[in-house]
Design a protein that fits this description.
Structural class: mainly alpha
Order of helices and strands: HHHHHHHHHHHHHEE
CATH topology of the largest domain: MetI-like fold
Strand order of the largest sheet: 1-2
CATH architecture of the largest domain: Orthogonal Bundle
Radius of gyration: 29 Å
CATH superfamily of the largest domain: MetI-like
Largest sheet: 2 strands, antiparallel
Strand content: under 5%
Length: about 375
């Protein structure tokens, strides 16, 4: 009886220790997530506030707006017969009154430094307000609607490009790792310097080659005009218009990604546990999947994340070159029109998406590499 109660007490102690360890793991995990989110939040705040300052040129855009307001008020007075014949002093006083009303309506009567924090708060809460010069395809001036109309096009372009980049770099990287030193390996190494040029640079040459000389692909846009009514024909038209921008992105990133993955595959292929697996007669395909590819995935995912970040920032020029109706082309138009709310709104969306990408990286590491525990490092 005593032995039985001792065993039960021992089992109870073990269960309590397991529950305590589980609670400690959950607490560490939540602390890690909270710390990570806090750091990313402050990073986004700093980035967005710098964007507010840059987009407003440190307050110089206010002077431009004041000049436009005064010019419009002067033109309105000169075109109004009842005001045109007023004495000069009264006419100038009337113009000053109209300018003051408009400045108060737009908040220009307050210092820019104070208003900049209001812009920051609105941007972080996605209260993006109204555009000053641009409109959406439906005629709305809400910044949120304007960006949401353009965002799917950018996500489509970058999503397709990164899918082919991820698959292609792994596939060809493994093949080169198996046959390193061969002519294909040397050929890829010779093409690696081509990744120094951005995608829009290759886009110009692709346009000159295929649409201009060969006349086989469209110059730009996302769909034919007028758009096909049949869904299948519409999808095929989008795919046809996507060939050149996707190719431009791949030319600017594929070769360096293949060479990088090939190098890491060769490093892991020379490990002792790989040689031991070969000596035991483990099939080559299983060795590649379990002992070479899986340990390399964290590095591959990191490189892919940085590539995505680079493509986000480079999509502006690429979309302008191909007249692709995405957020990059929208930013270009907003810069030309001094449309500050659009510039700030797109930057905020980019900042949040990049923050989410960085935040999810650690969780992807834990999924693909069993040695890594979120919040605990590697073991």
């Amino acid at each position: 009886m005593t032995d039985k109660s001792t065993i039960l007490d021992y089992e109870k102690t073990i269960r309590e220790e397991q529950r305590r360890a589980q609670r400690q793991s959950i607490t560490k995990f939540l602390q890690y997530v909270a710390g990570k989110l806090l750091v990313l939040f402050f990073t986004i705040v700093i980035a967005v506030y710098l964007t507010v300052l840059i987009a407003n040129m440190g307050g110089y855009v206010d002077e431009i707006k004041r000049g436009v307001i005064r010019e419009q008020a002067s033109i309105g007075v000169s075109l109004d017969p009842t005001l045109r014949d007023l004495p000069t002093d009264e006419r100038l006083a009337y113009i000053d009154a109209q300018v003051k009303i408009q400045e108060e309506r737009l908040g220009l009567d307050r210092p820019f430094f104070i208003r900049s924090f209001g812009y920051l708060s609105d941007a972080l809460t996605l209260d993006l307000g109204f555009a000053e010069n641009l409109t959406s395809d439906s005629g709305s001036k809400q910044v949120r609607l304007i960006i949401l109309e353009r965002l799917p096009s950018t996500l489509l372009l970058l999503g397709v490009s990164n899918f082919f980049l991820f698959i292609g770099s792994i596939f060809f990287g493994l093949r080169l790792a198996r046959r390193h030193g061969g002519w294909t390996d040397k050929l890829i190494q010779a093409f690696v310097p081509t990744s120094a040029a951005p995608g829009w640079f290759y886009g110009i040459f692709l346009i000159l080659l295929f649409p201009v000389l060969l006349k086989v692909l469209p110059f730009g846009g996302i769909v034919s005009a007028p758009p096909p009514e049949d869904p299948i024909a519409y999808a095929l038209s989008v795919a046809r218009h996507s060939i050149l921008p996707v190719t431009a992105i791949l030319l600017s990133s594929l070769f360096i990604s293949i060479y990088t993955n090939r190098t890491f595959f060769m490093i892991f292929a020379s490990e002792n546990y790989v040689e031991l697996a070969k000596a035991k007669g483990v099939p080559d395909r299983m060795i590649e999947q379990k002992y070479i590819l899986r340990p390399t995935l964290p590095t591959i995912i990191t490189n892919l994340a940085f590539t995505i970040i680079g493509l986000w920032t480079g999509s502006l020029f690429l979309e302008v070159v191909f007249s692709w109706p995405g957020t990059g082309e929208l930013i270009s138009r907003a810069l030309g029109a001094f449309d500050t709310p659009i510039i700030i709104g797109t930057t905020v969306i980019y900042a949040y998406m990049l923050g989410i990408t960085v935040f999810l990286l650690d969780f992807f590491y834990a999924l693909v590499d069993p040695r890594i525990r979120v919040g605990e490092g590697s073991k």
